[in-house]
Amino acid sequence: MLLNDRLETSRLIVRPFAPEDAGSLVALFADPRVHRHVDDGQPLSDDMARLWVVRSGENLVRHGYGTGAVVLRETGKLIGWAGFARPGDGSEELIYGLAPAHWRRGLGTELLDALVAFGRTRGIDPLRATVAPANIGSVRLLEKAGFVLAERGYDGDADCDLYLRRQ
């Protein structure tokens, strides 16, 4: 996602987070189907959601792109998150997630294709994504988008595999 800009697909818009998105993120992460494969597998607290929104904005200013809100083009409703995170080791990692009501409708493929194309324009090579091996839907999305398993138990975490895609 570009600073003060949006990444758009035919049905989705990825835009910078706004402060009022924190509550929607908390509601999204309240669903166990969402939070079980993200970070520590727990729901997102109000404080952590607000911090995520603030840090995402800081990354947009610092790097020109980062993570943001995924909204339905038709309604403007927040249904997920997506973009590029920086996990602390200097790498950039593609991240995404959608509300379960929007799974199995091709939106994940649409979103991931747009993120891959954006990564190409920024020269991010290889693209990296980590995923819990039990998150079969996400593994399939990554493989469909040309990602390959690079390391099981990434960084010593048995519940985290690293996938790479060369541009």
- Round the Cα radius of gyration to an integer and report it: 15 Å
Q: How many domains, in number, for the residues?
A: 1
Share of residues in strands: 15-25%
Helix proportion of residues, in percent? 25-40%
Classification by helices and strands: alpha+beta
CATH topology: Aminopeptidase
CATH architecture: 3-Layer(aba) Sandwich
Q: Can you list the strand order of the major beta sheet?
A: 1-2-3-4-5
CATH top level label: Alpha Beta
Main sheet attributes: strand count, strand direction, barrel closure: 5 strands, antiparallel
| SSE sequence, one letter per element | EEHHHEEEHEHEE
For the record, what is the CATH homologous superfamily label? Gcn5-related N-acetyltransferase (GNAT)
- Poorly predicted ranges: none
Distance between the termini: 18 Å
Average pLDDT, to the nearest integer? Answer: 90
Protein name: GNAT family N-acetyltransferase
Organism: Sphingomonas colocasiae
InterPro entries: Acyl_CoA_acyltransferase (IPR016181), GNAT_dom (IPR000182), N-acetyltransferase (IPR051531)
Pfam families: Acetyltransf_3
